[in-house]
Amino acid sequence: MKLLSQLRTSSFQLALLYMVVFATSVFILLAFIYWRTAGFMTAQTDETIEAEIAGLAEQYRSGGVNGLITIIRERVARDPNAKSLYLLTTDDSLKLAGNLENWPEGSQSSETGWINFTLGEAVGWSGPERLARARIFEVQGGLRLLVGRDVDDLTNLKRLIEGAINWGMGITLALALLGGFLMSRSTTRRIEVINNTSRRIMNGHLSLRIPTRGTDDDFDQLAENLNQMLDRIVYLMEGIRHVSDNIAHDLRTPLTRLRNQLENTLITVDNDEARDHVGQAVAEADQLLATFNALLRIARLETRGNTADMKVVALDELVADACELYEALSEDKEQSFHQSLESGVMIEGDRDLLFQMVSNLIDNAIKYTPEHGAIEVLVRREGDSAVLEVQDSGIGIPDDEKDQVFQRFYRVGKSRSLPGNGLGLSLVNAVAEIHQGQVQLNDTHPDGEKPGLTVVVRLPAFTGVSKRIKATRQDAADEDEN
C-alpha cells in the first residue's frame, strides 16, 4: 500500500513525465544514429560492389569474355573467405566462372538489378548460411554476370546496434524509474513531515511548528511561510480570546449584581403580577449568566489545549454518577431512563471536564425529549476506543444541520422555543477534542416520524501507556525523522 501511495504522488508523476520525455529524446537520437550508421554501411557496400563492377567492365572491354573469365578466377583465388561473390553464365545458365554454382531465387525478377539473398545449398554454397547482396546485369554476347558481397558481418553489426539501442532504452527507463522513485520518496518524506505536524497542530498542539532543514530550499521557504502564518493566526486567536474573556468577565459581574438585586426585589414585592415579572427577569438573568459561564469554559478549554490534568478515569463510574444526578429530573418528565454501562472501561482524562461533557449530553437529552419519552445512556469498549452513547426520542437534528450544531450559539429551528444558549454541544466537542476524541450525531430511529438523536463520543481507551508518554515518543520520532 505504501508503494502504491508513493506511485500516486505528484512528484513521482512529474518524474514519470520527465522520464517519458527523456526516453523519447534518447530513442529518437539512437534511431537517428542507427539510421545514419546502417545507411552509411549499406551505401559503402554498394559502392564496393559498383567499384568491382567497374573494374570487371574495364577488363571486359580490353580482354573480351576470356579476359573477364580470367580476372574473375583471379579474384576468387585471391579471396579464400569468399567475401566477394561472382557468377558468370551463358544465357542458358551454363557457368563460366565464379564462386557460386547457381543463380539465387528471384534474380530474374529484379528490376533494379540489386538483390539480397542467402548463401546456401540453393546457390551451391558449401559453407554455413550467410547473407549476401549483389547486382546482376547482362553482358554483351548473351552472358549474365552477378557481382556481390557477403554482408553477414554487416547484418550482425546492425543487430548488435539494435540490441544496444534496446538495452540502452531499457536501462534508461529503469534508471528513470529509479530516479523518479527516489526523488518522489525524498519529496514525500518532507511533505509527510509537514502533514504530520499540521495534523498535530489541528489536534490542539498550537505551539508546534513545521521543522526546517536549514537548506533554504523551496520546502524550507514553504515551512517558514506556514510557521509565520501559524504565528499570526495564534496571535489573532489570542487577541480574540482575550477580548472575549474580558467582555465576559466585565459583563458577568454587573449581571450577577443585577440578578441579586432582582432576587432581593422579588422578596419585597407583594403584588402577584409584579412578582411574576421580577421572577421572569431573574430567570433571564440566570440564563445570561449561564451563557457567559459556558463561553468562559469553552474559551478556557480551547486555550488549555491538551494541557488538562490527565488521570486514569473509569468512564462507566463517571457516567453512573452523572446519571444518578439527572435521573430525578427525567422522572419529573415521566421519561424512561435506562443505563447500559460496561464495567472496567478506562480512559485517561480530566475527570471534571469529562463530567461536564457527560452532564451536558444527558441534560440536553432530557431537555429536548418530550414527556413519556425514552432516554438511554450506554458505555462500552470497542477495540482501542471507549464509546459513550446518549440516545433519546426527542425532536432530533436534521441531517443538513448536524455539522453546524457544534458552532457556538447555533440552535436548530425546532429547539428555539426551548430554553438554551446553543453552547452545549460546542462544550462537548471542545472536551472531546482535548481528549483526542470524536463526536458523532446519528438519528436514533432513522425511519420514524420523530427520529430522536444519538450522540456518540469515541475516546481513546487507556491501554497502560499514558497519552503524555505517547506524545513524547511521537515528538522524538518526528525529531529523528527530521
UniProtKB/TrEMBL annotation:
Residues in Histidine kinase domain copies: 246-463
Pfam family, one: HAMP
Gene3D superfamilies: 1.10.287.130, 6.10.340.10, Histidine kinase-like ATPase, C-terminal domain
Residues that span the membrane, as ranges: 12-35, 164-183
GO molecular function: phosphorelay sensor kinase activity
Domain HAMP residue range list: 185-238
InterPro entries per record: HAMP_dom, HATPase_C_sf, HATPase_dom, His_kinase_dom, HisK_dim/P_dom, HisK_dim/P_sf, Sig_transdc_His_kin-like_C, TCS_sensor_his_kinase
Protein name as catalogued: histidine kinase
Naturally occurring in which organism (per UniProt): Marinobacter persicus
